[in-house]
UniProtKB/TrEMBL annotation, chain A:
Top-level lineage group: Bacteria
UniProt source species: Idiomarina aquatica
GO molecular function: phospholipid transporter activity
InterPro entries for this protein: ABC_MlaE_roteobac (IPR003453), Permease_MalE (IPR030802)
The keyword Methyltransferase belongs to this UniProt entry's keyword annotation: no
Pfam families, per the entry: MlaE
Alphabetical UniProt keywords: Cell inner membrane, Cell membrane, Membrane, Transmembrane, Transmembrane helix
Protein name per the record: Phospholipid/cholesterol/gamma-HCH transport system permease protein
Upper taxonomic lineage: Bacteria, Pseudomonadati, Pseudomonadota, Gammaproteobacteria, Alteromonadales
PANTHER family: ABC TRANSPORTER PERMEASE, ABC TRANSPORTER PERMEASE PROTEIN-RELATED
From TrEMBL, chain B:
Official protein name in the record: ABC transporter ATP-binding protein
Molecular functions (GO terms): ATP binding; ATP hydrolysis activity
Keyword annotations: ATP-binding, Nucleotide-binding, Transport
SMART domains per the UniProt record, alphabetical: AAA
Tree of life domain: Bacteria
Keyword Metal-binding recorded: no
Domain ABC transporter: 6-243
This protein's record includes keyword 4Fe-4S: no
Length: 371, 261
């Protein structure tokens, strides 16, 4: 069926002659383009012989138009339908604006991208603060009216963000507790101070590790889920449907999620503290011969309650930030599936970044007030 | 060689207990615009998907240019598919590629073109459907409904197929946009000599572009003929479709210029 397209240039009886044949279709585009390039410039006086041309499509016409020019092309002895085709393509080509020249060099482009990135960064943070404010405002409107509390939604979210995350959080912190105890045992035994492993595990988990690990886990697990859920609702115009019905999506969708996070993250932090210290206790018992009873006695004697509060105070702050970032990114989704993916990534990165940044600020603060 | 482009014989489609098609026969002639109409759930889309090989029919045969496409191997099927272009109802543009890349993708994948050549042809296709060079760099998300349909048409035409399948191309367009799309389709169809399989509910489109109309009803093709004959066919659904309030309005409009002559 198919025949390769070809073009030859020859001189017969002192006249220049172009012979075109075969299929001038998109399937042979690359080959034909090469042949035309090899042909070089065609003299204006050339006559064309197209008797053996089989098929012609838009790509073929495009090539001929570039090589022969409009005038020559229109003179070819073709069928009526092929003339229609040529007219249509020539019309399209002449209406076509020349492709835009590349705007600027690489360096300017880089500066442009840095500028866009920076202004987006600023705008994102401002939007985030705005979203935080709007959420708090709708919380204030709802708080005095128990009839508008979304108990079912809240409990469902609590199960998803809190209860379902419990096993993974407990396991993870148990393992990190064990690792910290190992480190302590190895380093401190050089000084004959391996008993202080207990203090190391206790301090680090109460103050930092429990809440930080839990927050990072939930940032990866829950913030992404919030963004994906709200994002696909946004893409499906469900959020607009709520607004159009006079319902407040912040109240219906965001508040239950934020509240669920505010409850589950501190609760999980508590579990994480116990589990991490448990991990340390097991390692102490196995490698340092410190019995659990002794471990708990020293732990109780040396570790003040203020360390516990240092950890716990941070939990609701992290919870609020993670939930707000997750929901806000969800609301920023526009239309496509790719957008849902982008914003989900962004929400995880942002919330982990914010958690670690806030944690550093908290550490400075507590150091200054000598807690 | 016969001038039948697509021949569907004795097609049967069944999903669980639900029979969509039974003993369905349909011919699409080369170079014609065949419009397929039918009520919701009458299996218009299933028929199109069966011909395209997206749905495997329960029984029957489908021939495209005399080849039984249901018996072909995957590689042979691909060769046939390259000869067909499809415009899906919602455009189905790839959201991660810009407009030019959307059109260039089949060229690069099937014909091994480099980005420049493929982009060149893509620009021509965009110009053919009446879009300017600026559109080429935009992402599908930022296009309007009418532009999405045009880009989807350009993508369907990328490989210069012989047969074009259109699934409700004017659905969701305003009357002006729909009218422009119809005339665009008509121009291209005549210039490129396309065979068009058009699924639509738009009576204006049916009157403007179709050579023949096939009515799907009672699990088969009830009648397939020129518009006048189909509109005169004695069946309750056909009569309601073409002579209901909407049908009358359109057919009156189409008649008026003739009265003027």
């Amino acid at each position: 069926m198919q025949e390769n397209g070809y073009i030859h240039f020859n001189q017969a009886e002192g006249r220049d002659c172009l012979t075109l044949g075969g299929d001038w279709t998109v399937a042979h585009y690359i080959d034909l383009k090469k042949q035309l390039a090899n042909l070089g410039d065609v003299p204006q006086s050339v006559t064309c012989n197209i008797e053996s041309m089989k098929k012609l499509d838009t790509a073929g016409v495009q090539l001929l138009y570039r090589a022969l020019g409009e005038h020559k092309l229109r003179q070819l002895p073709l069928t009526e339908q092929q003339h229609n085709l040529i007219d249509t393509v020539i019309n399209a080509c002449s209406n076509q604006e020349p492709p835009l020249p590349p705007k600027s060099n690489g360096f300017v482009k880089m500066l442009e991208r840095i500028g866009i990135f920076s202004s987006n960064l600023y705008r994102n943070q401002r939007d985030l603060l705005g979203f935080m404010g709007a959420t708090l405002q709708s919380a204030a409107q709802v708080i005095g009216r128990p009839s508008r509390w979304r108990v079912t939604a809240f409990v469902a979210q609590l199960e998803e963000t809190g209860l379902n995350a419990l096993p993974i959080v407990a396991l993870l912190t148990f393992l990190v507790g064990a690792v910290v105890a190992f480190l302590g045992a190895t380093v401190l035994s050089d000084f004959g101070a391996s008993i202080y492993t207990i203090n190391l595990v206790g301090f680090s988990f109460l103050r930092e590790f429990a809440v930080l690990l839990t927050a990072i886990m939930l940032a990866g697990r829950t913030a992404s889920a919030f963004t994906a859920q709200l994002g696909s609702m946004k893409a499906n115009e469900e959020i607009d449907a709520l607004r159009a019905q006079g319902l407040n999506p912040l109240e219906l969708l965001v508040l239950p999620r934020v509240l669920a996070m505010l409850v589950s993250l501190p609760a999980l932090t508590l579990v994480a503290m116990a589990s991490g210290i448990g991990g340390g206790m097991v390692i102490s018992a196995l490698t340092l011969d410190i019995s659990p009873a002794l471990f708990l006695h020293i732990f109780e004697r040396d570790t003040g309650i203020n360390h516990f509060w240092v950890g716990m105070i941070k939990a609701p702050v992290f919870a609020f930030v993670i939930a707000i970032i997750g929901c806000n990114e969800g609301f920023k989704v526009s239309g496509s599936a790719q957008s849902v993916g982008e914003h989900t990534t962004s929400s995880v990165v942002q919330s982990i970044f914010m958690v670690i940044l806030l944690d550093a600020l908290f550490a400075l603060f507590f150091m200054e007030i000598n807690w | 060689m016969s001038d039948i482009a697509i021949a569907v014989r004795n097609l049967r489609n069944q999903f669980g207990q639900h029979v969509v098609h039974e003993g369905l026969d349909l011919d699409v002639y080369r170079g014609e615009v065949l419009t397929v109409v039918g009520g919701s759930g009458s299996g218009k889309s299933v028929l199109m998907r069966s011909i395209l090989g997206l749905t495997q029919p329960t029984a029957g045969s489908i021939q495209i240019y005399g080849e039984d496409v249901l018996q072909l191997s995957a590689a042979e099927r691909q060769r046939v598919d390259r000869n067909t272009g499809v415009l899906f109802q919602k455009g189905a543009l790839f959201s991660s590629l810009n407009v030019r890349e959307n059109i260039a993708l089949p060229l690069r994948e099937h014909l091994g073109m480099n980005a420049n050549d493929a982009g060149d042809i893509a620009s021509l296709k965009l110009a053919l459907v009446g879009l300017d060079a600026q559109t080429a760099e935009t992402m599908p998300q930022s296009l309007s409904g009418g532009m999405i349909k045009r880009v989807a048409l350009a993508r369907a035409l990328a490989l210069d197929p012989d047969i074009l399948f259109l699934d409700e191309p004017t659905a969701g367009l305003d009357p002006i946009g729909a009218g422009e799309f119809d005339s665009l389709l008509q121009t291209l169809q005549q210039a490129l000599g396309l065979t068009v399989f058009l699924v639509t509910h738009d009576l204006d489109s049916i009157y403007q572009v179709s050579d023949r109309v096939a009515v799907l009803s009672q699990k088969k093709v009830l009648v397939v003929d020129t518009l006048d004959k189909v509109a005169a066919y004695q069946d309750r659904w056909v009569q309601a479709y073409f002579h209901g309030p909407r049908g009358r309005a359109v057919s009156n409009q189409q008649m008026r210029p003739e009265h003027g002559n």
